[in-house]
Automatic annotation (TrEMBL):
Taxonomic source organism: Ephemeroptericola cinctiostellae
GO MF terms, alphabetically ordered: proton-transporting ATP synthase activity, rotational mechanism
Localization per Swiss-Prot or TrEMBL: Cell membrane; Membrane
Keyword annotations: ATP synthesis, Cell membrane, CF(1), Hydrogen ion transport, Ion transport, Membrane, Transport
Taxonomy, superkingdom: Bacteria
Record-stated family: Belongs to the ATPase delta chain family.
Keyword Heme belongs to the record: no
Keyword Glycosyltransferase: no
Gene name in the database record: atpH_2
Role noted for this protein: This protein is part of the stalk that links CF(0) to CF(1). It either transmits conformational changes from CF(0) to CF(1) or is implicated in proton conduction.
Annotated InterPro entries: ATP_synth_OSCP/delta_N_sf (IPR026015), ATPase_OSCP/dsu (IPR000711)
Protein name: ATP synthase subunit delta
Source organism phylogeny: Bacteria, Pseudomonadati, Pseudomonadota, Betaproteobacteria, Burkholderiales
Membrane topology value: Peripheral membrane protein
Amino acid sequence: MAELSTIARPYAQAAFDVAKAENALPAWNEFLSAASAVAQNDEIRQLASNPSINVDQLNGVLTAAIKPTTDGMRNFLSAVVQADRVDALPAVFEAFVAHKHAFEGSADALIVSAFPLDVAQVQELKTALEQKLGKKLNPTVSVDSSLIGGFCVTVGDEVLDMSVRAKLARMQSALMA
């Protein structure tokens, strides 16, 4: 079977194109987020793989659970169900978010700090990272005391590790060489 990300790509592109044409990127983002969450539910996965459930029944259950607000969303959901690709909805959402971020010139940033950061510190770090990376960031902050001190930022596939733990590891590696 093909990778879910490969299957999801054309669906995400179609959803993005419709969302952009409707000038409704936030609404489609919310719809696909809900669809992704519903598709990951164990009961829904069992229902989707049950051969005694027909396409119309499954589409009705998903429509009731996700509550699409436009005809485009309902048609999209129906197309996914008819193609038996409900399992790909989480990957569709991820790919859609990537298209949305590329279009907006933004990215999600995961900031992991050794200690809790206040709003001003997060804003200062966000501003510095936006200047360095040249894109608007949507930060998510968490705390990991195993970093000892400092922080680690992940934006896409880029990682900036300024933690004390990483510095100690680099120092140990240099001393062992």
